[in-house]
Write a structure and sequence with these properties.
Blueprint (H helix, E strand, L loop, with lengths): L1 H20 L14 H10 L4 H17 L2 E5 L10 E7 L4 E2 L2 E4 L4 E2 L5 E7 L10 E7 L3 H18 L8 H16 L2 H4 L3 E5 L4 H13 L4 E5 L19 E4 L2 H10 L7 E3 L16 E3 L7 H12 L8 E3 L8 H16 L11 E3 L4 H7 L5 E3 L3 H4 L9 E7 L2 E6 L14 H4 L3
Parallel strand pairs: 2-6, 2-8, 6-7, 8-9, 9-10, 10-11, 12-13, 12-14, 14-15
Antiparallel strand pairs: 1-7, 3-4, 4-5, 15-17, 16-17
């Protein structure tokens, strides 16, 4: 475990050094997104990962070529009266009873004092007086090729590094044009702007542009999840004015390892997570939003099935991956293992999590000692170095069981709503 902790700190230092040398948008060093930033971190760990890095780069090229444009849906003419603006993400599940329900801030568009600028994915389109939607626009293939060539030539003459030739940065530039038509100086003057902050390139680019219009505008990033390895949240040249976090362990790791100052972090109860019925978590296997190897995961499930009786366990797919073919295939394979593999009569109801997921923190807060199956140990494990309230016990090489050694790892209060965030000075 000491080796893993040292490796995590080494990678974080590499991320910091890289961001310092490059501009604020930097690369998206996200351990749960199999992008070029992910494989750059893998390359820092072992130079033998160069082939995977090259393959990831090729995939990025194809993603750029196939990318659609964006368009705005909604009235952008009369936005001066909004003092609170939220720039967020939504999908079909966000639309209920002619309202937009934000999953990050757990708040609805019923409060007409808040302007919601939503990057929508899905088939539905929703907008009204205080909801503006940014949606993908179907683009013909020839136009896509022209977009790619123009972007590539521009990067070449600007002598930008390879991390700019990614779908994240290509999308960032497209969204920049869209947001420039919505957020103008006369619109956002004296406003507070909230992000469910993930340090995505477009968010950092947008923050830079907003600050160039008016440095007095307050920009607040809400860290809505609890990544085990928070590399993407390393402080950069351009950042929100402050971060809202819901875990004291995050305050510790952000200030000690991610270069944030204590005065830049605000500790408040979560608005995303609430107290849950324990049945929502017990006897379930939770899938991540993405994963690499079905075989690797299934082998780990087989190993667990020899220790625990998992026949009554149900599989919970990630809500963003309901229609994913590889997730459906993984569910089928796991169910086969659960019902066919014999083994111990040892009964457990503790939840089992696969891959990168912040729901482990939620389950610990509810009194469970969750089991975690990992594909990339150094990116997915909750080490005590970064999370001092969590102790881990290895069941196998890539399977751990967690135990909470300090209570209240995340602050959850009944009836604590987003409007409390809005009232912050």
């Amino acid at each position: 475990m000491k080796h893993i902790s040292k490796l995590q700190i080494k990678i974080l230092k590499k991320v910091f050094e890289y961001n310092k040398k490059n501009f604020s948008e930097a690369s998206f060093f996200c351990p749960s997104s199999f992008s070029i930033g992910f494989y750059q971190m893998k390359l820092w760990i072992n130079k033998k990962n160069i082939f995977k890095f090259i393959l990831a780069f090729i995939k990025e090229i194809f993603a750029i070529v196939l990318a659609n444009n964006y368009e705005v849906k909604g009235n952008i003419k009369n936005l001066k009266n909004f003092k609170n603006i939220v720039i967020t993400f939504g999908n079909d599940a966000s639309i209920k009873k002619k309202l937009y329900i934000d999953k990050y801030f757990n708040y609805s568009s019923k409060d007409s004092s808040v302007l919601w600028v939503v990057i929508f994915s899905g088939k539905k389109i929703f907008y009204n007086n205080n909801v503006i939607s940014i949606v993908k626009k179907k683009t013909n293939f020839i136009y896509k090729i022209k977009n790619f060539i123009f972007y590539f030539v521009k990067l070449f003459f600007e002598k930008k590094n390879l991390h700019k030739l990614t779908n994240n940065h290509f999308t960032s530039k497209k969204l920049e044009k869209i947001f420039n038509t919505i957020l103008k100086k006369k619109v956002i003057k004296n406003s507070k702007i909230f992000f469910p902050y993930e340090s995505q390139p477009f968010q950092n680019n947008l923050i830079k542009n907003i600050k160039s219009l008016d440095k007095k505008i307050k920009i607040i990033g809400y860290v809505h999840s609890y990544p085990a390895f928070p590399s993407r949240l390393m402080k950069k040249n351009v950042n929100p004015d402050c971060l809202i976090v819901n875990s004291r362990d995050q305050i510790y790791s952000f200030t000690k390892f991610l270069n944030w100052k204590k005065k830049e972090i605000i500790f408040l109860p979560s608005v995303r997570f609430k107290k849950r019925n324990l049945n929502d978590l017990s006897s379930k296997i939770f899938l991540p939003i993405d994963f690499n190897s079905i075989e690797h995961i299934c082998n780990s499930i087989k190993d667990l099935s020899k220790i625990y009786n998992l026949k009554k366990f149900k599989i919970q797919n990630h809500p963003e991956s309901i229609n994913s073919k590889k997730h459906i295939r993984l569910i089928y394979k796991i169910n086969q293992i659960i019902y066919k593999v014999g083994g111990s009569q040892l009964i457990t109801k503790t939840p089992i999590f696969i891959g990168s997921t912040g729901a482990i923190i939620e389950s610990l807060n509810h009194g469970f000692e969750p089991i975690h199956i990992m594909e990339d140990l150094e990116f997915e494990i909750y080490s005590q170095t970064l999370w001092p309230s969590i102790k881990s016990h290895f069941i196998d090489n890539n399977i751990v069981e967690y135990k909470l050694i300090k209570k209240n790892i995340v602050s959850i209060q009944k009836n604590f709503l987003f409007d409390r965030y809005l009232k912050m000075n």
